[in-house]
Amino acid sequence: MKIAIGSDHAGYELKKTVYSWLERNGYKVNDMGTYSDDSVDYPDYARKVAEAVANGEYDQGVLLCGSGVGVSIVANKVKGIRAALAFNPEIASLARQHNNANVLCFPARYSDSETIEKSLENWFAAEFEGGRHQRRVAKIEP
Questions:
Q1: Active-site annotation holder among 2, 82, 98, 133
Q2: What is the number of other CB atoms lying within 10 angstroms of the CB of residue 86?
Q3: Residue 107 sits in which domain range?
Q4: pLDDT tens per residue across span 77-135
Q5: Of 7, 32, 58, 122, which one has the greatest count of Cβ atoms within 10 A?
Q6: Do the annotations mark residue 11 as ligand-binding?
């Protein structure tokens, strides 16, 4: 599975840890920036990841910023993206099971690597339940 990952400066350090975890667990990962903790604008990186997932170049995306909210908003502006803000493993599972999220966003200033790793495990292991959830997800796209 191919994963696109990105962050702003606030998520940079934690993104490096997440990148390593993804690689260790057999995922092919492309870091789409940023590449330092110098101040940057989160929409630039969130859009790159979201567009790469939406156009099928990558299967899933992972984004980090200080609160996780900014990257989530930007990613959800891209047609075909269902980005979810995950702050614990249970939410990550539900993001896949109920919303078929294809981008998972994390609040770097309020997360630790252990929580993110368990959240990613849950997200990748979960399956979209379809049924009533499919009907609801279908209403998201214009």
A1: 98
A2: 28
A3: 2-138
A4: 999 999 999 999 999 999 999 999 999 999 999 999 999 999 999 999 999 999 999 99
A5: 7
A6: no
